[in-house]
């Protein structure tokens, strides 16, 4: 989760596109957070998000 927060901040500071690697599917995390709740047992695996 911390990488998900830091990725866009680094892009704004450095003005360089980045790919954030996560230990779960970012859609699970973002869907739960968008609904105003914490993710419950997000699936493990490899996820990437480009910013």
Keywords:
two-stranded antiparallel ribbon; globular; alpha+beta; 51 residues
Q: What does the model show?
A:
- With about 50 residues, this protein is of the alpha+beta class.
- The chain has 2 helices and 2 strands.
- It has helices at about 1-15, 25-35; strands spanning about 20-25, 45-50.
- The chain has a two-stranded antiparallel ribbon with strand order 1-2.
- The protein is globular, with a radius of gyration of 12 Å.
Alpha-carbon Rg, integer: 12 Å
Cα end-to-end separation: 15 Å
As laid out across the biggest beta sheet, the strand order is 1-2
User: Biggest β-sheet, characterized?
Assistant: 2 strands, antiparallel
Net shape = globular
The low-confidence runs, each spanning 5 or more residues with pLDDT under 50, are none
């Amino acid at each position: 989760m911390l990488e998900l927060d830091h990725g866009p901040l680094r892009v704004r500071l450095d003005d360089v596109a980045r790919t954030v690697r996560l230990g779960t599917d970012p859609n699970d995390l973002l869907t739960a957070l968008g609904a105003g709740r914490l993710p419950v047992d997000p699936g493990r695996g490899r996820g990437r998000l480009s910013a």
